[in-house]
């Protein structure tokens, strides 16, 4: 029997690697879009390298996207590629717009041009809510992004909705709240903390410099969230959904739990560095996942506590191996 084909853009990222594993386990033929760089960034998918097919293309290059879709003729496209780090978006707002906003239009154009029956998932973000007027946030909450990244994601969201409404594409926007894992990039606060905890535990560092400890996030486990992405493309009718846990914690609470998991006292090691404050901050995010729970029959399986403990344990193993 012919396997169902899926393309994942951003397969080398945190979510791309979990989604590739998930789709392979479901029997898909998985194609991963990778961009050319002088050094390969395949660490997260090294264990899958013989199971997936990698295709070279770039969100900045329209023709490469059209050719990729023409060559593969997938049933599903998961558009996860983007410049995803909020502080970088303040430093490189134009490039962030090119990747994270216009890149979505280029992907949608390629799908529209080659085959309108292809199902399209757009990786939208809770950063679009930004300065939200109420909590928890759901599809009725107005967007008020607080960074060039958030602004670019709002564009990506609406262009996805627009192509669905204009051309009858099965195009959906998953508004996902923060999701983490041992594969999270070390620049994001959760992984920055758990990696530092491991180094401090093993005597390699003394302190960890952080910015705003009062920021609150709704943190889930990335492995759970990629299943929600897949479920969104299996719906009968395309629609957008908020995917979250519905619980929120401060950065301080994350740090406290992470240091405790390694038998350390966070107050002895964390130093607040105002240089890490953002020009405009998203203070509190908490999602309302009721619709996703109902429509997708999906629920997160990993609690905040288990997530933190899992990340600390993984980083301790990693740092020990590197010794
Ligand atoms: P990530 O680890 O930063 O991965 C980003 C991916 O995008 C990488 O594979 C990267 O490839 C690729 N990429 C960047 N620019 C590209 C370009 N010009 N052409 C082709 N590929 C490019 O991000 P993630 O955490 O897995 O998140 C996946 C998606 O979900 C992102 O769009 C992110 O904005 C969104 N999102 C994430 C969260 C979260 O909490 N994780 C929440 C909501 C939404 P390289 O390896 O070549 O750099
Ligand atoms: N990165 C970082 N580093 N953040 C810090 C630090 C620090 O040293 N100290 C405090 N923070 C605070 C930030 O100010 C922010 O309020 C919060 O920790 C979370 O920051 P990040 O982990 O960088 O994630 P994010 O919430 O800005 O963005 C992530 O989640 C979005 C979904 O809401 C990214 O994955 C985005 O791509 C994603 O869309």
Question: Could you explain how this protein is built, in words?
Answer:
The longest helix has 22 residues, at 93-114. This protein has helices at 14-25, 62-72, 86-91, 93-114, 148-167, 189-201, 222-233, 251-261, 290-296, 304-322; strands at residues 5-9, 29-34, 53-56, 76-79, 119-125, 170-176, 179-180, 208-210, 216-217, 220-221, 241-243, 249-250, 270-272. By secondary structure, the chain is of the alpha/beta class. The protein folds into two domains: 5-179 and 220-243, Rossmann fold, CATH 3.40.50; 185-217 and 248-284 and 302-322, UDP-galactose 4-epimerase, domain 1 (Alpha-Beta Complex), CATH 3.90.25.10. The N and C termini lie far apart (47 Å). Helix 6 (189-201) runs parallel beside helix 8 (251-261). It contains ten helices and 13 strands. Helix content is 41%, strand content 15%. The strands form four sheets. The chain has a seven-stranded parallel beta sheet with strand order 3-2-1-4-5-6-11, sandwiched between helices. Strands 7-10 form a two-stranded parallel ribbon. Bound molecules: NADP nicotinamide-adenine-dinucleotide phosphate and guanosine-5'-diphosphate-alpha-D-mannose. NADP nicotinamide-adenine-dinucleotide phosphate is lined by residues 9-10, 12-16, 35, 37, 41, 58-60, 80-84, 99, 123, 125, 176, 178-179, 185.
